[in-house]
């Protein structure tokens, strides 16, 4: 039986992890839970699973440290959203615990530090994003040396067919209606702008040690093919399943095993799958991410920080949908060529980028371009 710690237990990833634990009691035991602000839900879940918990809004990072050090988990699922998930990832790996990682910002902001920490403590990092989980498994089956290209699929979000003029008028309510996935607000907006796919490109380059020109994106509205790899002989191999995040979560929890489970199998018969190139000009967040992936250094930190500021402003109706990319692009005009060689340096670069993005937001609100 594998003992699980769930960080961000009331969010989408955390809730689906707990669903797996309920259905597979002989395989998994929940030994610790953390939540951000929802004290009532945390208390209820801790009672259900008979385990300790920590509320970030009350206990802060010290609470997560104590939980990690005392719960005796074999693996932690990090389902915390945004940059706030970076330090918990470091705490988990520092304690010598395997990490099932759904927090892509951990990789985007501080991969050299995180990968070094995992290596030092002989820990495994297993990706939980459906796309990276698929690539992880496909590479495992094909062999890293045989991979010529990684192809990440994108649903395209709710506005993939909108004209540039229509995109300017997108409302918050429209952007929160994802056609395929049920996710948190921030990641749903990121899917609509293709920022999420941009973050995933950066993540794929780092997780799988692949240069940006060998990581491609293809729009696949049905979200059935979660990613593909092209081997050196030119053949494409895909991972296909229903769009259910419990598949990659369970895969990470069971790794390196692969066994039968309760999840519904995908039936290929009668299914339609279509694929299109992404509209990079209409959704510039993707091209900005590629640029940051190529530049490296602190550019990826700035991309993530500026995007978080811009998305928060959009959700509060302080900027338009298309302003999100403009704020990020403006922030990236600064010099981000310094390498962040410590977690403190990462946090400092993140802070500076957020301040710059906030200034850009003020300029746009005042009609200054």
Kindly describe this structure.
- The protein is an alpha/beta fold.
- Helix content is 48%, strand content 14%.
- The protein is built from 15 helices and ten strands.
- A six-stranded parallel β-sheet has the order 3-2-1-4-5-6, with helices on both faces. It has a four-stranded mixed β-sheet with strand order 8-7-9-10, with helices on one face.
- Helix 4 (86-94) packs parallel to helix 5 (105-120).
Order of helices and strands: EHEHEHEHEHEHEHHHHEEEHHHHH
The largest sheet, given as strand count, sense and whether it forms a barrel, is: 6 strands, parallel
The class by helix and strand makeup works out as alpha/beta
Q: If you compute it from the alpha carbons, what radius of gyration comes out, rounded to the nearest whole angstrom?
A: 20 Å
Q: Distance between the terminal alpha carbons, to the nearest Å? A: 58 Å
Widest beta sheet: strand line-up: 3-2-1-4-5-6
Residue-averaged pLDDT, rounded? 95
Shape: globular
Helix proportion: 40-55%
Number of helices: 15
List low-pLDDT spans.
none
Note the beta-strand portion: 5-15%
E-strand count: 10
State the main characteristics.
48% helix, 4-stranded mixed sheet, 369 residues, 6-stranded parallel sheet
Secondary structure elements and their pairing?
Layout lengths: L1 E6 L4 H12 L4 E8 L3 H11 L3 E3 H15 L4 E4 L7 H9 L3 E4 L3 H16 L4 E3 L2 H13 L4 E8 L9 H5 L3 H4 L9 H9 L1 H13 L7 E5 L5 E7 L4 E5 L5 H9 L29 H12 L3 H17 L7 H9 L11 H23 L4
Parallel strand pairs: 1-2, 1-4, 2-3, 4-5, 5-6, 7-8
Antiparallel strand pairs: 7-9, 9-10
């Amino acid at each position: 039986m594998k003992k699980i710690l769930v960080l961000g237990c009331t969010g989408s990833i955390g809730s689906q992890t707990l669903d797996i634990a309920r259905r597979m009691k002989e395989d998994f035991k929940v030994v610790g839970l953390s939540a951000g602000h929802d004290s009532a839900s945390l208390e209820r879940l801790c009672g259900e699973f008979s385990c300790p918990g920590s509320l970030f809004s009350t206990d802060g990072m010290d609470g997560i440290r104590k939980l990690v050090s005392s719960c005796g988990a074999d693996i932690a699922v990090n389902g915390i959203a945004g940059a706030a998930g970076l330090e918990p990832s470091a705490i988990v790996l520092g304690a010598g615990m395997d990490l099932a990682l759904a927090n892509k910002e951990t990789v985007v902001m501080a991969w050299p530090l995180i990968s070094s920490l995992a290596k030092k403590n002989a820990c495994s990092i297993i990706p939980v994003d459906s796309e990276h989980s698929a690539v992880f498994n496909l590479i495992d089956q094909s062999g890293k040396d045989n991979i010529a290209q990684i192809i990440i699929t994108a649903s395209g979000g709710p506005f993939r067919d909108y004209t540039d003029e229509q995109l300017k008028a997108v409302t918050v309510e429209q952007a929160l209606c994802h056609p395929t996935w049920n996710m948190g607000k921030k990641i749903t907006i990121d899917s609509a702008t293709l920022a999420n796919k941009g973050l995933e490109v950066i993540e794929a380059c780092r997780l799988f040690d692949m240069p940006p020109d060998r990581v491609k994106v293809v729009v696949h509205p049905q979200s059935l093919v979660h990613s593909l790899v092209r081997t050196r002989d030119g053949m494409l191999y895909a991972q296909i399943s229903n769009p259910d995040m419990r598949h990659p979560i369970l895969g990470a929890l069971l790794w390196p095993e692969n066994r039968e489970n309760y999840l519904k199998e995908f039936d290929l018969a009668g299914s339609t799958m279509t694929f299109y190139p992404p509209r990079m000009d209409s959704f510039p967040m993707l091209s900005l991410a590629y640029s940051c992936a190529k530049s490296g250094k602190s550019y990826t930190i700035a991309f993530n920080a500026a995007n978080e500021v811009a998305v928060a402003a959009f959700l509060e109706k302080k900027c338009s949908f298309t302003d999100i990319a403009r704020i990020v692009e403006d922030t990236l005009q600064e010099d981000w060529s310094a390498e962040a060689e410590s977690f403190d340096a990462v946090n400092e670069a993140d802070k500076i980028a957020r301040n710059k993005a906030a200034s850009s937001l003020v300029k746009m609100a005042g009609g200054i371009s």
